[in-house]
């Protein structure tokens, strides 16, 4: 149940982005749901491999290169999912940060941990 709620929260965060940034468009709720699912899968399966492959650059940049990886993955999902569009890399960079902040805030407000892991 928690996984479903997290997915819905991420879709809501994604659906809120066009209201904050004109360079991001989400055509409908279905596109937001699919994009949130694909983003979750990409962050689960592809991101760890990219982080491992770029470890020297990430180390030299004191971890800031992870923001670039997040932006590239966000931008890539926007190219892959129909109904979800990001205009360019820098828009994806800022959108990925905003998406993370909105998702974190909504998760903090809506999901109660109650001390259970």
TrEMBL record:
The keyword Transmembrane applies. It comes from Massilia agrisoli. The chain crosses the membrane at residues 26-46, 53-77, 89-111. Keywords: Membrane, Transmembrane, Transmembrane helix. The keyword Plastid does not apply. This is Phage holin family protein.
